[in-house]
Design goal:
It is a single chain. This protein has two domains: 11-68, Ubiquitin-like (UB roll), CATH 3.10.20.10; 115-245, Cytidine Deaminase, domain 2, CATH 3.40.140.10. It is of the alpha/beta class. It has helices at 32-42, 100-103, 115-126, 130-135, 158-171, 189-198, 211-219, and strands spanning 11-17, 20-27, 52-58, 63-68, 82-86, 93-97, 139-144, 149-155, 180-183, 202-205, 223-229, 232-235. The longest helix is centred in the middle third of the chain and has 14 residues, at 158-171. A hairpin with a 2-residue loop joins strand 11 and strand 12. Strands 8-7-9-10-11-12 form a six-stranded mixed β-sheet, sandwiched between helices. Strands 2-1-4-3 form a four-stranded mixed β-sheet, covered by helices on one side. The chain contains seven helices and twelve strands. It is globular and about 50 Å long.
Length: 247
């Protein structure tokens, strides 16, 4: 039998900040306003949504233009360069991008969940978009509360999916005290840092974490849960947020 395959769309979006070209993001062309806002917040360009004074988007040209209240001083010398520093004042060295040192702070969330919430959130995330099953070429990130999924975002880039969630929370002033994030891929250090920047205390991943992701989760006060499959999952850090495991 011959059938037509569904392929994920790849799209280039160039971002200008105060008339200065900053970067080009290769992404899935949906929820682009959220993507730009979340990306700029993640990079420390936007500290709050109130700093954003003007936003224009041309999907035909693939250009987003952003203006902020004051001149943005992002240091090109350090942008996208690795920085070896001590995470959160501890003695163990952790690799960051320079701007991560300014924006990835320990999470203060006191959220608690039960084991059943892990499975229900992961299941809702997986069924939230047909692209995940149809293409096998996108990542999905979902913002949930213990009782239900709030919103999910899809992208060919795992960072982009999380930036879209970040942008959503800022644009909608979404409360995050009781939030968790479910993610379709592996739990890398970059994913963990994105979760910290958003300010969510619990992250669920379909696949395995890396050793650096576990270290960062421990230091940034994030409950990292991986291998959520069937009726099992692994908890790597801060198990006190799961009621059955808290002491």
């Amino acid at each position: 039998m011959i059938r037509q395959d569904v392929v994920a769309t790849e799209y280039a979006l160039t971002i200008f900040v105060n008339n200065k070209e900053m970067t080009t993001v290769v992404c899935t062309p949906e929820h682009l306003t959220e993507l730009v806002v979340g990306f700029l917040a993640s990079e420390g360009i936007l500290r709050s949504i109130e700093q954003l004074t003007e936003f224009t988007l041309s999907t035909i040209k693939g250009i987003a233009r952003v203006k902020t209240q004051s001149e943005v001083n992002f240091n090109e010398e350090f942008y996208n360069k690795r920085f070896l520093g001590s995470c959160c004042g501890k003695s163990r060295p952790s690799f960051y991008y320079y701007n991560d040192m300014q924006t990835a702070l320990p999470v203060t969330s006191k959220a608690h969940i039960v084991a059943a919430d892990v499975f229900s959130c992961m299941e809702e995330m997986e069924h939230s978009t047909p692209l995940f099953a149809e293409t096998g070429g996108v990542h999905v990130a979902a913002l949930c509360t213990p009782s239900a999924m709030q919103v999910s975002r899809t992208d060919i880039g795992r960072h982009n999916a999380l930036d879209k969630l970040y942008g959503y929370t800022l644009l909608h002033k979404q409360p995050l005290d009781n939030a968790l994030i479910a993610f379709s891929g592996r739990l890398s250090s970059e994913v963990l840092l994105k979760v910290a920047k958003i300010g969510v205390g619990i992250v669920l991943a379909k696949s395995a974490p890396t050793s650096l992701a576990i270290q960062l989760a421990d230091e940034l006060n994030i409950t990292a849960i991986g291998f959520v499959r069937g009726d099992t999952f692994n908890v790597y850090t801060h198990a006190w947020r799961i009621d059955e495991l808290s002491t």
